[in-house]
Design brief:
Elements: H1 2-21, E1 46-47, H2 49-54, E2 64-68, E3 85-86, E4 106-110, H3 118-128, E5 133-137, H4 140-148, H5 168-177, E6 183-186, H6 190-194, E7 202-203, E8 222-225, H7 230-242, E9 249-251, E10 255-258, E11 264-267
Parallel strand pairs: 1-5, 2-3, 2-4, 4-5, 6-7, 6-8, 8-9
Antiparallel strand pairs: 10-11
Length: 270
């Protein structure tokens, strides 16, 4: 009898301990899992502003291209990295002719910052075309402005009094303040060009110009220069004949003296 009472007392004590410690059942505590961010949309080769800066020059070399993947009118024209060309992602397939012919050329894409995917998508398309050295400046134009404070705005070119000629004072202003905003082509012979020209000008002698017109970009005004306006005027009319879709084409109707000391004098024609 006493043994039975002792056993009952022991069982009661055990039951009490179980209730006090909350061990009546095994409880599974669920914790919220940390969401894993999907980064599959990002390009695999990311660079910073210093990398972009290190590969810039005036004019840009043939084997390097900085590409702005943002919309042209609402973003690029309001400011872009100096030397960058505009190939909006939405028009990538229509503007592949603007990309370098050399598939080993360095392509650096950028857009509107870390939340913008346009540069990543464009870079993937470029790589799919066979380009072997493609990078994305992921922090994009906001980081460029923050780091270097430079903003090239696309300018409006004013026509002069003569058909096809750019307004002379406007041309001087562009050269002084924003030369990268136009595609400046010096149509003199190579030996003349070698003695001096505008810093952003590229040299295409007028007799070699025609087959190259089809490859000219259409994202900035084209301006031709020579010492008198004769060869540059010829280049203007040649461009209008060969590629009527290019609307912003001009030439400088002026006397331009490329001096040996590097200075350039621009005067109205007599």
């Amino acid at each position: 009898m006493k043994s039975t009472n002792v056993k009952t007392l022991i069982l009661a004590l055990v039951a009490g301990l179980v209730l006090l410690t909350g061990c009546t059942a095994t409880k599974t505590v669920k914790t919220a899992a940390t969401p894993v961010e999907d980064t599959s949309w990002m390009f695999h080769d990311i660079v910073d502003a210093k990398f972009v800066k290190a590969h810039m020059s005036v004019p840009m070399p043939d084997n390097v291209m900085i590409v702005d993947a943002r919309p042209y009118k609402v973003k690029y024209t309001k400011g872009h990295i100096p030397g960058a060309i505009s190939i909006p992602f939405s028009k990538f397939d229509k503007k592949t002719n603007l990309l370098p012919k050399d598939k080993n050329a360095l392509l650096i894409y950028y857009c509107g910052g870390l939340k913008c995917r346009l540069s990543h998508k464009s870079a993937k398309k470029a790589e799919a075309l066979g380009y072997k050295t493609v990078k994305v400046f992921a922090k994009g134009y906001p980081e460029w402005k923050k780091t270097y404070g430079q903003s090239n705005e696309t300018v409006q070119v004013k026509a002069g009094e003569v058909e096809g000629a750019i307004e002379l004072e406007r041309f001087k202003s562009i050269i002084a303040k924003n030369p990268e905003s136009i595609l400046l082509i010096d149509v003199r012979d190579a030996d003349e060009f070698a003695k001096g020209s505008f810093k952003t000008a590229i040299n295409i002698p007028v007799e070699k110009l025609e087959p190259k017109i089809k490859d000219f970009p259409d994202n900035k005004p084209i301006v031709y220069v020579c010492p008198t306006g004769a060869r540059s005027g010829e280049a203007y009319y040649m461009t209008r004949d060969v590629r009527k879709s290019l609307k912003d084409v001009y030439y400088v109707e002026a006397e331009i003296d490329f001096k040996s000391d590097g200075t350039i004098e621009i005067k109205k024609p007599k």
